[in-house]
User: Fold this.
Amino acid sequence: MNTKRKTRVRNLLRSAATAALVAGSIFAGSAGANSAHAEDVKILGLWPMSGPFADMGPLLDKGAQIALEEIDYKINGKKIVYITRDSETKAGAAARRAQEAIDSEGVQYIVGPWSSGVALAVNEVAKKNKVFYYFSGGTEDIAGKRCHKYGFQWAANAWTAINADLKIFKKAHPNAKKLYLFITDFAFGWSLQKYVENLAPKYGLEIVGVDRQALGTREYSSFITKAMAANPDAIFMVNFGQDTIAAIRQLNNFGFTPKKPVVMAWSAGVEELVQMTPEMRSNLIVGTNYYYSVDNPENKAFVAAYKAKNDGVPPGYAPGAAYGMMKVVLKAMKDSGKTDPASVAKAMEGMNGKTIIGDYHVNDWNHQTVRPYFVLQTKPESKMKDKYDFADIVDVSGTEQPKNMNECKDMGGF
Assistant:
């Protein structure tokens, strides 16, 4: 993909979504200024509109808005006021803006942000203020050692994801023995690295090297040279977004792929794959919390609505997560008949439902959403049905982390 084409693709991902963000912000601002009152249900979408994940922020916002549009911004006879703030992918900025939205706007619910390290800071704000908080990301601590009654995790547990990735990798490459790890150096990467090292022996795999890269890394040549010298059977990557795209591009340039596979352990899915050439996508195993080809009525309706707003580009993990989280929260409100955070959190505990990812259950004891994790195998260009037919789902795994491994010991009270 040439430079102009890459720029057009990236702009396509942003442009329509940014327009939706502006519209949503105007709506929220108008409602807040003119008609919001104490009985309104106030939800904060805390998304990264700047910083390393800035390309994801407008897409997350769009997914959340589609869920709210389906009910015309109303629940239990009350109006929903939806407010957005920029997390900047910075813990301090996100926590400050969450607190400001609580204090000045009366926010009762927070959905987002998009970075595990940032989420942990916002999680503490929610706990202190008794505000409902739903997050989707790789850290296990939201539903682990930093669990509390108001905090919930939508993404699959890190153990569940890594177990699924390794299972499918070994099935596809039964003679493989050695893995080399590329790990993004913050809470997301640390959680998943722990379980790669824990689970690799179960599948007859040895970790022959680990390199951690800072968030925002774009130059991988030294890491690739070091990894290739170790002669692994695959490179197992725990990174995300533009970091992942840069690493895959350079691994292909160095000739590692397609000769040997790369595992993208926790991927944005479409948002990453659409920015890769067919050559870059060759021989990838991709783990993700959402893929648009999941075959159920709920997902088909969401995909159609999203594509209509996004120039025909299907949704990836970012809008899928925002939509999925919002739908679960709205279901808990409807089921309880209430809109205060404590009542809705109680309704979430032990809740079962079905949404775009299929069946799910919310644990009452740690607030983990137990749900499928999807593993994809990328397709050669000759087998793609259309330009967005990047991969097939080859495994759907909901195997839950063994309870004795979870560090949520005391959630406290409401």
